[in-house]
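Data availability excerpt. The first of two example chains:
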Amino acid sequence: MGQMENRPVSNTSENGRTVESLLQIVTQDLRRLHEGLVTQLSEEVNQLQAEKAYLTEEVKQLKAQHQTLQTQRTAALSQQQIAQQQLWAKQLAMALANHLQSLMVQQMNQMAKANSIAGMGSGLPGSSQLQSDNAQRMLASLDATFSATFRSLQQELNSYHSALSQQLGRMHNLEQQGEAVLQALVSKLQEQLQAESFGSTTALQSPVSGSAYSYSTGEDEASLSETVLQPHARPGVSPPDLSSSPSLSAQAGQTHPVYSPQAPHSHPPQSASSPVISTPIPAPGVPQPLTRLFPKKETNFWAGFILVLFSTVALSIHNVVVRVIGKPSSILGLPEIGGFINITVLGNSLLILWLRMLVVLPLMVAVSMVLYPPVWRDLSQFLAARDRRPLLNVVGSGFFLFLSQVLIYIAIGQIGAGPAVTILFMYPLVTVPLAWILFGDRPTPLRWAVMAIISLGVVFTALPSIDVNKVTSGGEMGVTAAIAAGIAFALYLIFMQLGFKKLHPVPVSLIQFFTIFVLSSIILIFLGPNLGVLVQPEKRVGFIVSGIILGALTLIGYLANNFGVRFMGAALASIIASIGPVVTALLAWILINNPLQGVQILGIVMVTLGVGLLSVERMKLQMQAAKT
């Protein structure tokens, strides 16, 4: 009986093992199928890139052949015209000589007849007078003949000149039409390759191009490099995801909805019901890394997490250093240092920004050639383009970034790093309505709620600074400067979204850095003494060292953010970067003992939470678009 009772248990255990083995087999089959599919799609992507490089080389060869044929045609036409002109001149000379010969023969015959008649009647009175009159008439007739001949020759030459001018004009028009046709052909090839590359990469669900959200109070000198996934956007328009972290720093080597170095750029048409996804057009022969929503390996995720967090910390330390430059502070309880200049003065704020750009710009030039080798080729083609609007948009973004930097430095000097950076994060209050107006990106209920949270957080953060019973009017000026910096930063993002589609983010970063450097240099040269620029001689060394530190922190944050986004994906990186205000306030409290009131802490948390929710919403939209 005991054996009979144990049989069901044994059968159950055997069935469990069978199910487990089947599950293992199915899991292994699915894994092999997944690996095979990924391998196949990767090979197809590599094949498409090779075909693209081949087509690009063919286009170059066609351009060279077109130029050679045009040169040969011009030379042949010029030689033919010279030969034809020589032939016309010979024919004209022969006709003129024959005509003159016939005239001379006729005149000689007439003279011979007149002489014979005169010889016979030489005894008659008045014969000499008659001969003189005949000679005069002959000379006048000969002169009139020559004049008529030369007038007809001049008219013929004028007609030939007019005909040649018309032919040259037609040749010039044909040349322009040929260039336009060739340019349209190159553009169509770029669009076709872009569409094929987009189809392959969408199948892999890997390249959701995103911004390296390097947070800073404007460390966002690098360009906007987000791929926008907005379900409410108009077809064919890529509205900015302007509701994410405020740095939106462009990272070299990421997929980016911008770059095509050889022809005017256009995006493939999209259906009205599908999300607008801007896809990259990588440089010929330059492999572009794929940016993903999530990394494939856990080790890559943690490496990216550490790098993005390190970038956020570095750029937050940058803000604390700005505070130390403007106000003497005790770092970790050590003797006070700092106070090299009064950064609440506009001229001094410009001076520290100029020194920082003086350090960053040469380093960025060297780094850009490593991150993106064809940077100079792209810049030369972008600057030589006939359409100047993209260039004006990029320069305009650099101007508003410059304005945001100057104002945030003044705000940090007045109200501290933590509150100033938090108020800077109010930029979604401007960008979300502007994105709705300019790009048709209607705000979702979550965005309206987030805007309300950010508004309350900004009010709570600024409240202690504008309390007349506790703080002087300097706090109110600092809050005003921080709000103006947030508005300027929002306009910077808008201009970036309008101008970044035709250029890779690395050249865009160089243009913006250069714009900031030129603007600060011009203003300091012509208006520096009137703006209160003053550095005491005994503090110049500290001022220069602090400027070098700011430049180094800027470059470190840029590079760490670049590689961090490559490892962990832009969506997750934006969530980590949204903790910028909290990190800045915490470091200011730890490093220089800059305490905050309870209401300010609440405001900082609310603003950080609002920006983080916007980043989470963006990540969900990207995941939904990747699934579809």
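And the second chain:
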Amino acid sequence: MRIYILFVCCLFSVLLSAQGRKPKVLDLSTNTTQNDNLSPVPSSKKIATIDLYRFISLDQDTTYIDTSLTIQKEYSHNYLRRDTFGLLPMPNDGQSYNTLQYTSATNSMFPEFGFKAKHFNFIEAHQVRYASVATPVTELYFKSTQSRGQSVDSYLTLNTSPNLNFSIAYRGLRSQGKYINQLASTGNFRFTMSYNTKNLRYFNKFHFTQQDILNQENGGITNLNDFESENIDFNNRQRLEVFLTDAKSLLKGNRIFVDHSFRINPKSRASNLYLNHQFNYENKFFEYGQATVLSSSNGTPVARFGESFRSIEINDKTRFNKMYNKLGISFENTRLGRFHFFMEDFRSNYFYNQILIFDRGIVPSLLNYSINTVGGQYAVQKKKWRGNFRYTTSLTNDGLSDVEASVNYDLNDQNQFVFQYQNSNKLPNANFNLHQSSYVQYNWFNNFNNEKINRLSATAITPFVTASAEYTVLNDYLFFKEVSTASQKLNQTQIVAPFQYGGTINHLSIKLNREFKFGKFGLDNTILYQKVVQGESVLNVPEVVARNSIFFSNHFFKKALYLQTGFVLNYFTSFYGNEYNPVIGEFFVQRDTKIGNFPLLDFFVNAKIQRTRIYFKAEHFNSSFTGNSFYSSPNNPYRDLTIRFGLIWNFFE
């Protein structure tokens, strides 16, 4: 099915390109240091300028298409299609990421599905972009993966008229991995539509997504000494024994989303009145399957996740659906700003197909919510200042509230400052309160308190440095923790349960970035410092995370080729890194093993020819001479040397 969708996307773009009408000449040069090799444009031809190729977020933030080749494009050429600084990937592409940089920013105070470790590649509603383009645009992305497989992303958008745009996209990945039972196979289908009437009285944004994330789960290697010994027999990672040889997990979900507004007064004027409505319906399920329940370690049977109700063929499924409606009215005045008042209705069902009865109590089959809130928002812009303030509180007996404030000051085009504050009281994700499993000790029913988050942040963007600082105070923090007894740990049994920390956690982070240019050479440096003050070690992050890149950039062959090559060094200090548990699709806190304090060196050669960017990379090329002490989590080694090839190809009609 995925191959079929990808084929349709590509065929659609080819057919559009083959249409008989004469294409408009396009000038999309976004980097004055690079040459897009366009032929001279006769003055009689129409030119589509860069501002006619816009990508608009749900919050009306606008970006423009960019075909340049920069060091930032190197950082974002990956499975997630974004800069992954602060994330530590698991051994195979398409798997989860361990967290090095904690951030408390939340987009919702409502209870979500949970299983967060499976959601890094799950495209949320606020991440979808809506396009407006002068001519049809196609982008094809490709990157090689671990062993056999590929990572692809095909995107096509066109405007049938100036006020109606469609886009269709499919992101797919298949990666075999280098360890036993590590196959990853994912697919993200997106369709968007944006429309406005000619008189700009009605606006509509719509999208549909269909996503699935399948992973074979091996539970990590059973004997770390085999890996760390550097025995050449284990250079073939398939020879390393793993806990699970036939387990797998699947996250799958569909979403229908609509956001539209209507101006009540017929003509736009200094004061305008709008009706707003947003609708979001989503259903998901998480499935964990394991054909052989009993594992093995050096010939010894291991009950990896403890006692089970079943001796073979575990197949646990958790289902979730939600429906969200937001209805509001807005008053906009050119001098006073924009006042917005709204009501929200949130309904969700998190459920199983059975009720479990234990001596310690009953684990029900259903957890549902029906929540109503009201709120107001005020946005204003005065010269160089922009402010946005929002308050939301629940009408139902859930104790939800959210206060957000942001102030932007643009001193000039090169100096911007942002200050933000958030005070949020949010419900726990559903899997903290309810979980059913074929494993006896992975069944629970709780009634945790709301999490309280206070966050203050500031960001400065200047020609000298880009700096950000964030201070967060957490109360009633929720987390998963290993609760295996000493004898269970000795038998390599891993039992995990949810907990709520009753104390206060203080987290401070300071992040600095600066790029230096020395002729044709560049040096890009990013460093993150974090400090956590807590009575119990429940929020564990490295104190320092750093990335340093040195690179060379130049034109060749009469500026037909733009080349950028260099080295990237990633490093983080040692800390008690969280471990991944496939049964619950979450990372959990552990205090037995530290990871980190090892360098990760990459070498890359990237090139740009017209609208095509070509990427070649040797990832972690120092793995063979720094010792096998590199881990993504306590039981999962980081990636060995991997040779990558990829490209991004843009087409414009």
